[in-house]
Amino acid sequence: MPPPSSEGARAVEVAAGLLLDGELVLVCQRSAAGSHPLRWEFPGGKLESGESAEACLERELREELGIVAQIGEHLASVEHRYDDGPHVRVHFYAIASHAGTIENRVFERIVWHPRARLDELDFLDADRPLIVLLRRRAQLDLAAARSILER
Question: pTM for the full model?
Fold first, then answer.
């Protein structure tokens, strides 16, 4: 049970992006010195006061990865309360395209990881539901392809 002082606390709003290159997904490992050290996440960050999730994600991708991103489809929003930290609401978006070369400006590591093997990485708990969603979409895509081939 959370302490009484945190029960009415508002969620920290976060935006995160899904950058794909075929079946590879760009994932970022948090710094060893910060909160949730060396855990993996999708790139993004906290919304500033009055900022939309899309504007936040554009800003964060520019700051963290040095790219100018075209924000695409809203994929999901997830709420999670960390035992040792805040209640967060993460808004996940597809990145339709981007300009510039991706560079690591703040993370321990960034890698292109196979979408089908994302569960191998130690992701932040709030990011895990997106991995489940991606797996389900891949299964639906496979089922649709089989259906078309059977016609």
Answer: 0.86
